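#struct-queue
[09:14] JT: dropping the first one here, sequence first, then the structure tokens:
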Amino acid sequence: MITYEGAQRRVQDVDHGDHLCLAFADESEQRRVVTAFLAEGLQRGERVMYFADLTRPEDVLDWLTASGTDPRPALDAGRLVVTTADDSYLAAGAFDPDDMVAALRKEVADSLTAGCTGFRVSGEMSWALRDVPGADRLHEYETKVHQVFAEHRASAVCQYDARRFPADRLDAFQSCHGAAVEPEPLHSDSSLRLIPAFQQGRRALRVVGSVDHRNTDALAAALENTLTWPGDVRVDMSELEFIDLAGVRALAGAAARLEEGRRLNVVELAPLLCQVINMVGFEEATPALVVAAREAAR
């Protein structure tokens, strides 16, 4: 059973049994995560496969080279395979989830028989947006293939370009995975981490830790970054431990700079903090700031 609840996992923490979703909004984020995922597998002695679609296979090899990992020995030994979606997901001319699941089971078994320490794979899923027979069965595939990785010394990162997939479809595909790959934090120190995320298929900002005089500027800068995102801004406060008045002012200031019709939705905030914001009058003074308390019992 898949228990995805919006959890995020750093790419360096990916291990056997993981079937993760990478939703990205720019190529630099895609490249960073993919390169780290592939290089770690090679370093661990695993067999690594990559299914490219919008990216050229040779570009993926260049990513590894630029990161300091020479792909040639693994390519020559058959421990690294970089191919295309047309030659993997769509090798039969149409997409069949059961055939693809069976093929991956065989790849896992063959890798372990060959003496590899495990198997890892990453694929670009943008092919599913083309007029391809069977593409409408991608959700079925993601659900079925989850067990392949859960039961073996294997891991996978499935890539979804959030600029191309509609929010509702992206959210549905994310829910077929055990967790999402955590993007690079916009800020990270011992007291506060500000992490981009995709929630309900749309970009969000996770606030983890405490906001006070030491890091209010970092929160303000991260919020400024979110203003460039499309649509309403979602700020997830479910992992917030404390926020002072200056931090709340930063939220209100960002909301005030939104274009007319957009909202800054602060969600999962502790009920007491919601009351404080209401008492001070920030919501009333800033209509674009919408605050929602977390449920008392989760």
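[09:21] JT: and here's the second one, same format:
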Amino acid sequence: MPRLHVVIASTRPARNGPAVAGWFTRLAEKHGGFDVHVVDLAEVGLPLLDEPHHPAERNYTRQHTKDWSASVDAADAFVFVAPEYNYGMNAALKNAIDYLYFEWQYKPVGFVSYGNTSAGLRAAQMTKQVVTTLKMMPVMESVAIHYVGTHIADDGTFEGTEQMAEAAGVMLDELARFADALRPMRDGSA
């Protein structure tokens, strides 16, 4: 079964990412096509890129980079649960992506984006430009959440709509297809 990492991209205090990721993770586990793991960039705690060597050299000197490399390497697919900050992707996600190179290659990525009027779509589009440079395959299907705060219950849980859940299911189906199709490229047999 392919391993899916659900990456919580926001590291801000009082962020909505963990609530949205919790909702999505439950759907992904119910989907049954993946071994699902949540990766919270706030817990990963990567400082602003501090490796002395280029990521393509894979000559990591810091333990946090070695740990991050092992985590990303273990995944077959990703879903970035990400906000939009000022019309773009948030710095913590960009930094986490930039730490590595080969570990991302030939892996599909989906997006659960959130914000207010834009639903994080501009950030998702910006992130797609970045990940394709790393030979990742963004799937077309996504979940876009408008006015994310209106979906957060008093107990802090995210309450997605039926349409959001349907979009998540379609995205998970595509991620599973691409994870399988790209496997020969990841394992070097293609």
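[09:30] RK: nice, looked through the second one.
[09:31] RK: The chain has six helices and six strands.
[09:31] JT: good to know. The mean pLDDT is 97.
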